[in-house]
Write a structure and sequence with these properties.
The chain has helices at 2-13, 18-28, 44-77, 96-103, 111-116, 118-128, 195-203, 208-213; strands at residues 86-89, 132-140, 144-151, 154-160, 163-168, 173-178, 187-189, 214-218, 228-233, 238-242. A hairpin with a 3-residue loop joins strand 2 and strand 3. The protein has a 7-stranded mixed beta sheet. Helices cover 39% and strands 24% of the residues. The termini are far apart. The protein folds into 3 domains: 47-77; 80-151, Ubiquitin-like (UB roll) (Roll), CATH 3.10.20.310; 154-242, 3-Layer(aba) Sandwich (Rossmann fold), CATH 3.40.50. The chain is α/β, with parallel strands linked by helices.
Length: 249
């Protein structure tokens, strides 16, 4: 009996484990004193707003490139992407249509191509029409093109191969001829290709009023003088002169 009592005493005096001690304290602590877990304050309207903004942002990132592509395709499919009205400014002796034809533009050409090749088109006009001194292209609106030009001065005509050919201030004789020359310019006759530029230089030294009164300049070469010329005036007078001295008189 004494041995059983000692064993019981030893069992009662055994220390509790930490887990057992924690459970014992929890049982002794009143329920209202126990710490409660903090509640999570969730603002649902704010979360919905953020989600909606993110959705709109994603839609913009997706739709914007698509709209741009549709706009580009729509532009190239519309008549606005191609050459429309072409007008000419600055010409007085060359017909507008002749300048337009020299550009070789058509209503099938894209305006984007014209914008990148404006200088090349202007040079094409100058090469095709020797009387055009300068040319430049300006684009107005979507598909309107303005060709701005300046011309070499016309100093007269020369009669060759049954036609009157225009002579420019540069001395160049145009290949295209006409049967109806402008009467305000004199007609040169009898001069060689070497003498003609010299006569043009001489004519530019005359006063403008006298130049307008001359209807014809003829290399008469009378009296065995190779420098003799005859000036036929609009009033019917005929003046015989020498190219070496006429500019001084």
């Amino acid at each position: 009996m004494t041995l059983a009592w000692l064993r019981k005493k030893e069992q009662q005096s055994d220390p509790l484990t930490p887990w057992q001690q924690y459970q014992a304290r929890q049982q002794q602590t009143p329920r209202h004193d126990r710490r409660q877990k903090p509640k999570l304050d969730v603002n649902l309207p704010k979360i919905q707003t953020l989600r909606r903004r993110k959705l709109v942002k994603n839609l913009v990132l997706i739709l914007l490139p698509l709209l741009l592509l549709l706009g580009v395709f729509g532009y190239f499919a519309s008549p606005l992407s191609k050459v429309g009205l072409v007008s000419v400014q600055g010409v007085t002796t060359v017909p507008d249509q002749q300048v337009i034809n020299a550009t070789k533009l058509s209503d099938d050409d894209l305006m984007l191509s014209v914008a990148f090749h404006k200088n090349a088109i202007a040079q094409r006009v100058q090469k095709s029409l020797p009387e055009i001194k300068t040319a430049s292209l300006t684009i107005k609106g979507f598909n309107r093109i303005i060709i701005k030009t300046s011309e070499y001065q016309t100093v007269g005509y020369v009669y060759q191969k049954h036609a009157y050919h225009k002579i420019l201030v540069t001395g160049e004789v145009l290949a295209a001829g006409t049967q109806t020359p402008v009467t305000t310019y004199p007609v040169f006759s009898g001069f060689t290709a070497k003498e003609l530029p010299q006569m043009i230089t001489l004519l530019k030294q005359f006063p403008a009023a006298i130049r307008r009164d001359i209807s014809e300049i003829d290399a008469s070469r009378g009296d065995a003088n190779p420098n003799q010329i005859a000036l036929n005036m609009n009033d019917g007078y005929r003046i015989i002169a020498d190219t070496r001295t006429i500019a001084k008189k």
